[in-house]
Design a protein that fits this description.
Elements (H helix, E strand, L loop, with lengths): L2 H10 L1 H15 L6 H16 L9 H12 L6 H20 L5 H78 L3 H26 L12 E4 H18 L2 E6 L5 E4 L1 H19 L6 E9 L3 E8 L6 H4 L17 H11 L3 E6 L4 E8 L2 E3 L5 E3 L1
Parallel strand pairs: 2-4
Antiparallel strand pairs: 1-3, 4-5, 5-7, 6-7, 8-9
Helix pairs in contact: 2-3, 2-5, 4-6, 5-6, 6-7, 8-9, 9-11
Length: about 375
């Protein structure tokens, strides 16, 4: 019997071949797909391998399958599935049609199975190569972003530390001059300022490290006068306030106390005050800054305002985001660190800005105690 006649008999057994293939596939990959879907796939593939009069590359099953292989999103096991698919079809041909298949016809059908397998694997390989190239580009972008981030952090660190170091160097010169001139009464005050600036450097380093995965040991919470914190900051900023001709109004009662990380909150206020002075540099005269403190039943508020230019609308939405700044030599980390510090102190920082005033508001919750009767008391 010639191959054409044998091929007719094979086609007549289509259902038996497909059923055998489905059972084998179900045993190898339980739950792969429902039987109806598998039968439709098997029927399409069976027609491909038995319609020998249609060239390999022109058969609609091949074109559709290759297109699928190129567009599939998750193809980690696709190649393995393709090889298993081919093996199970050859096995079904031998098991079901072993008595009617001639060697020549089996070779022809097997060649179509091989061609399908090669085409599918090649399509998957192309997809994998493209995916790898895209990942390489993505890794390159991430690496470049990381290098840029390190550069910004280094620049920011240098900028934040340079100012207190400059102050330290200046006061060390005054100390040396005071020693030579026997004016020891001022040396002690100079040393206090030098010590404070060293603490300021430590705070800056702590702030930077707070963005890393290995933060420094957290500063403990203590009760401290809000006026005391502000007096310390203002004493250090006095030379700059005088040089910039800034009129500072301080309205902070002595009795208001905060339970906070003292050095960290000093850093927040120092940043807000320096930012305010920077903003006022745009004015030629009538430079005003105000620091006020108020409280209600649940919170204590410290408000730092200035009459400088308003914050641009495009910056306002991202003001507390790292590296967002409109200063020529700014780093964009100051307010981001302030927000993080306030969060660690269970507080909040917010702002308002218009043409007449820009104001930052620090909100600190009062400590609450529960009495024996279950009543909450603010302390």
């Amino acid at each position: 019997m010639d191959n054409e006649s044998l091929l007719v008999k094979v086609r007549q057994m289509e259902h038996q071949f497909i059923t055998h293939w489905i059972n084998a596939l179900s045993n190898e990959s339980p739950g792969d797909a429902n039987k109806e879907e598998l039968f439709n796939r098997g029927q399409a593939y069976f027609r491909y391998i038995t319609e020998l009069h249609i060239p390999f590359d022109n058969h609609p099953v091949v074109l559709k399958a290759v297109d699928w292989a190129r567009t599939v999103e998750k193809d980690e096991g696709t190649v393995k599935w393709i090889i298993s698919f081919s093996h199970l079809w050859r096995n079904s041909l031998l098991e079901v049609g072993g008595d009617i298949l001639s060697l020549g016809l089996f070779k022809q059908i097997s060649a179509r199975i091989d061609h399908f397998e090669i085409m599918m694997c090649h399509a998957c390989w192309e997809k994998t190569v493209l995916w790898m190239k895209e990942k390489d580009c993505e890794f390159d972008r991430l690496h470049e972003d990381r290098i840029n981030l390190i550069g910004k952090m280094a620049s920011s660190m240098a900028h934040e530390i340079r100012n207190p170091l400059t102050s330290i160097i200046g006061f060390l010169k005054l100390v040396r001059l005071g020693i030579h001139q026997q004016t020891f009464e001022k040396v002690d005050s100079y040393l206090d300022i030098i010590e404070h600036e060293c603490d300021n450097i430590l705070k800056q380093v702590t702030g930077f490290l707070s963005f890393s995965k290995r933060p420094m040991i957290e500063e403990g919470l203590v009760y401290v006068s809000a006026r005391q914190i502000l007096d310390t900051n203002i004493s250090l900023l006095s030379p700059r306030l005088i040089d910039e001709n800034v009129d500072l109004l301080l309205a902070v009662p002595e009795q208001v106390k905060l339970r906070v990380q003292k050095s960290a909150i000093q850093q927040v206020l120092s940043n807000l005050l320096n930012n305010g002075i920077d903003a006022l540099s745009a004015l030629k005269s009538n430079k005003k800054m105000c620091i006020s403190c108020s409280e209600d039943s649940g919170y204590i508020y410290i408000r730092v305002s200035n009459n400088g230019p308003s914050i641009p609308a495009e910056m306002a939405q991202r003001l507390f985001t790292p590296f967002v700044t409109n200063k020529e030599h700014g780093t964009g980390l100051g307010l981001a660190i302030c927000k993080q510090i306030m969060a660690k102190n269970n507080g909040e920082i917010s702002f308002t800005s218009d043409d007449s005033e820009t104001a930052f508001l620090l909100t600190f919750p009062k400590k609450r105690k529960v009495t024996e009767s279950g009543v909450q008391v603010v302390s």
